[in-house]
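Task: encode each sequence below as structure tokens.

Item 1
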Amino acid sequence: METQVPLTIFDRFASNLHIAVLFAFAAPTPSNDALLDGLSKVITHFPTLIGRLGYSSSHRRPCVILGGDGGGALVVEATVSSELSDYLPLEPSPELQLLHPSPFDAVHLLQVQLNRFKCGGLVIGATAHHRVADGQSMSTFFVSWSQIVRGTTVDRLPVYDRSWLNPRRPPRCEFEHWGLDFVPIPTHRRGFTINPVDVDPSEITNMLVRYSTDYIRKLKAEVNNKYTTFETLLGHLWRKITIARGLQDCDLTMVRVSVNGRTRLKPPVPNEFFGNLVLNAYPKANVKLLITGGLAAAASIVHEAILEIDQRYFQSFMDFGELYGEEELVPAYDVDGIVLSPILEADSWVRLRFQEVDFGGGGGLRGFLPTWVPFEGLVMLLPGLGEEGGIDAFVTLIAEHAKLLRQISHSLD
């Protein structure tokens, strides 16, 4: 028997693709049998991950179909003839794509690959469709899976209650969601001309820029500790990437910043809510003013833009979904092509639970990284797993721009 779970407006705002991540664990690690047994148990708490995307004629919108034919998760077991230590610390590389099933044209919403190294080390590569779960949700899944394998109680089961996401009666949009959030996009989008750049994906590189706790402390001192670590570090990276891209003084640049709505809705939604509950803030600036204004000005622009995505904005977005949910909705960023410049997309996984993933065995988590991404203009902040802690910035740029960013990434001017 099939059950249809309509996608929320937040699910439909998420990218229509799989997100792939890698966890590296030093030996000793649990056996594959133990991992798969734990996966079969935990997945009963996360049924939408083993459904399939479809369309609900009764609700007249896209949905996840549970039960019936299809569905399930794809699991691959692989062996690697080299030592895990040869790849630690994990660095972005096209070879990482061999450690997880292909996210392109995937049939299953959840894919897992268990990679056993010669030394007994383990890399778990997994992909999940973004329309089913955001980063907060997937961190809940991975932590729950690891707890079951360790034989401990799952401390935070997923929550599926959607009562927080109800539109008003009557619904009303207080903000303009066409254009920045969803297409159709006018030729000029609030001053931004979208001209997709035709480049070979091989010209795009991924890099990891490591910022120590001490360096972040220096950055925050530059802004008199007025802004959060995320706002400060993103302001710093925005300026340095803009310089590295060689943008003109008169150009406009913008960052799409992911904003988690769980704490912004009233009453707040539990972090364990499973699905998507993220919107974007849109800090923007003239290139010359961004560069000459210094870090404090950049962090302030980011801060003010994030403040605007509040309870009222989220409620307006839910009302938008009620008014236009029966239409074919395409997120604006799905039509940008593979080069985003002069735009950036920025997200932080620092406060999520990925670093808590521990399957037991004693080896421990030694690396956590997104896979190689063939898109320019992404910034993801990851928790530093080394003894010094700090934050690792995963950045995707044209190769020549990445080379320059490496040279200036830690400059304080």
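Item 2
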Amino acid sequence: MKEKNLKKLSAERPNVVFIIADDHRGEAIRAFGDETVQTPVLDSLVASGTACRNTHIFGGLTGAVCAPSRACVNTGIPIFRAMIGKDMMIREHSSVIRPDVRLMPQTMQGAGYLTHAIGKWHNDKASFARSFEGGDKLTFHGMSEHTKVPVYDYDLTGAYPKEQEYIERTFSTELFTSVAVEFIEDYREDRPFFLYVAYTAPHDPRTAPEPYASMYDKSDIPLPPNFMREHPFDTGDMAGRDEKLARWPRDEGEIREHIADYYAMISHLDAQIGRVVEALKAKGIYEDTLIVYTADHGLAVGQHGLMGKQNLYEHSVRIPLIFRGPGVPEGKQEHALASNIDIFPTVAGLCGVDLPEETEGISLCPIFAGEIDGVRGIVGSVYRDVQRMVTDGRWKLIRYYRSPETNTGTERIQLFDLRSDPWETQDLSAEPANAGIIERLASELASWMQASGDILQDKPVLPVTSLA
């Protein structure tokens, strides 16, 4: 089919390039005020689109937060109703999406889109098979070395047996980008496409190729204001894999090196996304394509004395979310509260696609249209059976539990004023003047837990000594 006809069809219902990164925390983009990291391509998408700066993940019930976060993004449903698996909290990887739940790519396919996947899925193969009618360089693993990536070719049967898996040596970010570019260049269908590109960067091992590996000098890397040598109490997950990536107590020089390597991975990823953008422009369909950029969760990398994402501080639960394309305002940074379960409804709304009845997320399209200021009064997040969080955008309450399963964790709360303390350095929970704020947030957290089907909804939100 002639490309001008493809462009016409795309203008009526836009093509979609949905990009999801692994471990990219919300503030680590230069356009968002980080003066160290270099992200010119993402900056350009922010300048020509809308960035939803206050988007939080729903959370996870195991240390592998990637899988439940991706399930929330692709179903628009809280993990307690989107996923299945006995004893989800204590299983190392709980990744199975319920078979009766319709996913974002599955819904787009039903609306006439050709759905094509590249890269990391990390949920079950059955949910993948019912969502995509094509794909390339597919991996169902949580992580790997970036130059030793176990991948599959697309399998029409949906089985993806182990014997069909093979190793690719091209650096993962470049590998996935190259096949995404090929898909765009070769596309000739008379229907719009939904291209899902799931990177494994900037997840460790943080081994960016040159010249990116040498882009950041660790001696020039500023430590974040909330750097700590040690976290002041047991969060319930102090000895997991991620926390062992740096020595205890945390050393300033070592943390600077980790941040430099993290930023190198992000800048390399940014450049590769630029190749996708250029392919869309060369095809003549850039202006008719909705580009979405997000991540499955954030990462501490030394903040609060932590290294991983197994916590509910902003660096771990707040993610980048950028929309650019038809129906999206240009040059807007939106600070309304959002959850990652809202991403699917927003994509559907921008594409004129009806949502499945079971979807629980809320479209951000009315905010884009200027009809309302926000869709949520609060957002919450969960981690295993040891942490729960709620924020109204200014005040944030984190509730910590002691796990009977692992005998880890601490019975306590933290309260932060994100307006005056965005780095969460001052716990205000002990100040008597804040008792009313704590009680209000505790009530909202309890209601949110019940509405979400939280497995801890019957546990008290406040520890008995919190207001003594």
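Check on item 2: The first strand starts at residue 15 and ends at 21. Residues 1-11 have pLDDT under 50 and may be disordered.
End of task.
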